[in-house]
Amino acid sequence: MTNESRKLFILDTNVLMHDPMALFNFEEHDIFISMTVLEELDTAKKGISEVSRNVRETNRLIDQIISDASFEEIKQGLPLERIHPGNGKERLHLGKLFFETEPLLAKLPISLPSHKADNHILQTGLALKERFPKRNVTLVTKDINMRIKSSAVGLHSEDYFNDRVLEDVDLLYTGWEKLPEHFFEEHGKEMKSWQDGSRTFYELNVGKDCTWHANQCLVSENEAGFNAIVRSVANGKATLEYMQDYGRGSHGVWGIQARNPEQNMALNFLMDPEIDFVSLLGIAGTGKTLLALAAALEQTLDMNIYNEIIMTRATIPIGEDIGFLPGTEEEKMTPWMGALMDNLEVLTSAEGSATNWEKESTQQLISKRIKIKSMNFMRGRTFQNKFIILDEAQNLTSKQMKTLITRAGNGTKIVCIGNIGQIDSPYLSETTSGLTYVVDRFKNWPHSAHITLQQGERSRLALYASDNL
Prior knowledge:
single chain, alpha/beta, Rossmann fold, 3 domains, six-stranded mixed β-sheet, 15 helices, elongated
């Protein structure tokens, strides 16, 4: 540990539990793992949870790094370049991995008993700081309380930032943009337009510095109310398509009409068979689930584009867990699917003049085409020609999101719905949620679309509560 230009990062157990690849995310700097961390990893390796899988992956990576190394080599630090970090590409300019090969003791306040695991890690960090006063020694932990205690005893600490999709959630892609007031007056002269069946397209020069993305919505506030979807941007030119209006006349979807511009944008993408992945983000009451379900029923029962609707969600309780639930997979999931039942009630009563018998017949028909599935049984499956709705997607990690989306077969559409302001998982934040991850990663793919809905339509009470509570 004589290279003073390199930082020395002490990894807490929760960092490796969260991301096994954290070992390779500190560039040229060195990493230190204490015996306490190795003990905690050993305790958590059993089970089928995401944390247990990450612990086993961490153990495998450490085993590969330490393989065939002598005790003297381990004491000197093992280069992290000894193995390929999972993606088949050799990582250069990595630091070394050090272990606690000898007792490292430092004085802790009497109020922090050293027999506790967290306090022993703090003690190890302080001992390293005393042994290498010229090195930048930093404890990396996702535990807020651990960072507070670390600062209190004089050890610098940081959160693990590599899993953050964005520095600030306000930078998250919204999927739509308001155009300047005189935009079309400036670009109208050189704009080309043509029709392809019932679809109207436009082409205009936007320059090479244009920041538009494929399937981004452009909203104009001029008198004509020109709203368009960016279909492609290349060589300084953008191709736009005039947006369908689902807010008036007979253009509703399963009896539902768009109540605001954002809902209209969402329905344009939900009803587009060329869009394979749609993410809808918004506060409670913006109509995310209702719009997705209406589009699913329209395209499954009336248009026969999909043969089945599958709904699933992360089963994380808001309060205390009510324990194990009896019955089949679908019966166990039913208590979690209250949103589905509420929206189905709205959709089946949208016809208004239908008799009770007609409504019951419709509900029976719908129930045969909608399947409720648990995420726990998704791995290894392939869904063909399905309309899949992932509700409460903000509670999924990026790895869980990848596992679910890669289940899609030919002809399948996936809609992710969530509100990053209502994350129930204790291990996720707005910037690390799997929903934030897919919104950012899919924004450049021409077969995906995202809309952030901002205007609540549930009730004046719900809207006031969202704004003021």
